[in-house]
Input
Amino acid sequence: MKQTILARRYAKALFAVGKEEGKFEEYNETLQGVAGLYVSHSEVADALTNPLYPLDIRQKVMAGMIASMGVEKIMSNFLNLLVEKKRAGILPEVAEEYQAMVDNEKNVSHGSVVSAIELSEALQVKVRATLEKLTGKKVELTTSVDPSIIGGIIAKVGDLELDGSIRTQLASLKDSIKGRE
Output
C-alpha cells in the first residue's frame, strides 16, 4: 500500500535540512542508494521492517548499512528515525518524493520518447532541445522502441504529451471518415 502523503512529509523535512546545509544532492545520492538496496534485496527490506525482529536488531541492521556507506550524521539520524518510527517500509517512496524535489529545485524534468525505430544520438539531442524549449526545463530523456506505432514518435514530459505517431494519425483519419458517413 502506497503512503505517498507520509513519504512526502519525510522527504520534505529532509529536503529542507539538506537545502539549508547545502547538501541536498548528496543526501539524494545516499537516499537513492539505501532505497535501491531496500528494493533490490528482499532480505534488507525484511530485516528493517519485520515486526518479528526486535527494534534494536532492526536499528543495528540500519546502523550497519549506514556505517558501510559512510553516511553523514544528519542522514544517518534520518534513516535511524525511519526505523525507530517503524516507517522503513516507505523508504522507496521517500526516495522517490525526494528525487522529485531535487529535480524541481534543479529545474529538471524526466521524459520519455517512444519511437518505431531506434533514434540516433543526433535526433535524441534535437528532441531533447525541442522538449526543453516547450517546458522551459532541462529534460532527461529515456527512449524506447515500439514498432506498433508504425512511425513518428510519442514524447511525454510531465503532463505534456506529444503524439506524432502514424498509428494515431491513421486512427484520427479513420474517425473523420466514419464521421462523414
Observations:
- Residues 107-180 form one domain.
- The beta strands are 108-115, 138-145, 153-157, 160-163.
- The chain has a mean pLDDT of 93.
- The first helix runs from residue 4 to 21.
